[in-house]
Design a protein that fits this description.
The chain is mainly beta and about 290 residues long. The chain has one domain: TolB, C-terminal domain (Neuraminidase), CATH 2.120.10.30. The chain has no helices and 26 strands. The strands form six sheets. Strands 1-13-12-11-10 form a five-stranded antiparallel sheet, with no helix packed on it. It starts with a strand and ends in a 5-residue tail after the last strand.
Length: about 290
């Protein structure tokens, strides 16, 4: 169905907890969200080791931002029910926001599963169950397929297809793929209690966060072409670095606390991006150049 619409347990090395430095990054690699006791959300960017953090946007609702390609200097995020595009400048003096504009309003205040390819934004509406693709150039928001229950969406490496999860039972999900032009979805072969997942930038590999009854969330690295992989730690929200070698994720530490860690796929080691429990989301720059 295609309806075009126009809508206005591992080796861990430690690193310093993120703090607002006097010199902000001039080449951001990680985007993350920091919460405060007052209930505000702070969208920030930083170097890969957590230094050079700079604030680009603040709001009163969950802000999970996704970088566009490095050269575009764009970020997409939900601000309440508004799908928003932010532009920024990065120079030797640091990073600063140059503008924001609302692309569309979903009709309700929610942070929907979404992904940003630079050209398009894939997103799922929890009330209608419709999987959408918003094209930046035309401003067209197209409904691709109805997915009654989903937990995550992600573009394939070249941005021509969208992977999404669909519930097939009370706790089980199946991962499927659909072209951005619409058509019939196809099964990928990955199943389970999928919470979140991310697709590789170089090939169709995946990092999948599963919910395990009585254990909690754990993360699997699934190589391209496989339907199962290797569990590398407890956590959720994994996202690939531009070269697919490193995965950044949230790792629970007990008492409702968590750290933000980086897992190296090749060396099977983990290091710390931030030990600040107020970091609630993190993702990498998708392109290396």
């Amino acid at each position: 169905m295609f309806r075009p619409l126009i809508i206005a347990v591992l080796l861990v090395t430690t690193a310093p907890t993120i703090a607002r430095p006097t010199s902000a990054t001039s080449s951001p690699e990680v985007i993350f969200t920091l919460t405060s006791r007052s209930g505000t959300y702070d969208l920030r960017v930083a170097n890969e080791d957590g230094t050079g953090a700079a604030s680009l946007f603040k709001g009163n609702s969950q802000l999970n931002g996704k970088f566009g390609p490095r050269a575009d200097r764009t970020i997409a995020f939900w601000n309440g029910g508004n799908l928003t595009l932010l532009t920024y400048d990065a120079t030797s003096t640091g990073v600063r926001t140059t503008g924001t504009r609302v692309l569309l309003n979903s009709g309700r205040n929610f942070a929907s599963p979404f992904d940003f390819s630079g050209r398009d934004i894939a997103w799922w509406h929890p009330e209608t169950g419709d999987l959408h693709n918003y094209n930046l150039a035309s401003g067209t928001d197209s409904i691709l397929f109805n997915v009654p229950q989903s937990s995550s969406v992600s573009f394939n490496p070249d941005g021509t297809a969208i992977f999404y999860s669909e519930a097939i039972g009370s706790t089980d999900y199946v991962m499927r793929r659909i072209p951005i032009t619409g058509g019939s979805p196809t099964d990928v072969g990955i199943t389970g209690h999928i919470m979140l997942f991310d697709t590789g930038h170089q090939s169709d590999k995946f990092v999948v966060s599963y919910q395990v009854t009585g254990v909690g969330p754990h993360l699997d690295y699934i190589p391209a072409g496989a339907t199962s992989g290797t569990t590398f730690g407890n956590g959720y929200g994994g996202a690939f670095r531009c070269d697919d070698r490193v995965i950044i994720f949230r790792h629970p530490t007990g008492n409702n606390s968590s750290n933000t860690l980086k897992y190296d796929v090749q060396t099977n080691t983990t290091s710390t991006f931030s030990s600040d429990n107020n970091v609630v989301f993190a993702s990498y720059m998708p392109t290396c150049n």
